[in-house]
Specification:
By secondary structure, this protein is mainly alpha-helical. 61% of the residues lie in helices and 0% in strands. The chain has seven helices and no strands.
Length: 130
Amino acid sequence: MALSQLKLLVNLARIDGDIADRERKYITTIGLANGVPMEDIVPLFDQDHDDIGLKHLNNQEKFDYIVSLVQLMKIDERLYQDEIKYCSQVAARLGYDQTVMFDLMLHVREAMQKKELKTLRELTEKYLSK
């Protein structure tokens, strides 16, 4: 599971042509926190990842994936149209209506409390196809 999430994050970070240090650190931290060894994380930054399986994820994992993508997108405090488009496409592949991005863009911040995440998850569940 964690490896596919990291691949999505790397794809997003590579969209603007440069992976910023804060983006690299964010992705690495998520990988390490999910038990992915550093030697498996580092090579991910040098390649595009096309075939990422997302069908097997449960609703909590889907939510975690999309929130981590939006946090990464906002981490450099610049939003690029291509990044928003990519996140919308991933949201659709995860089973969300692409309009979920409006609520995510408004409410996701770099650091969020558990209560905030729970409220956001409840808010975004209406966008998830059953």
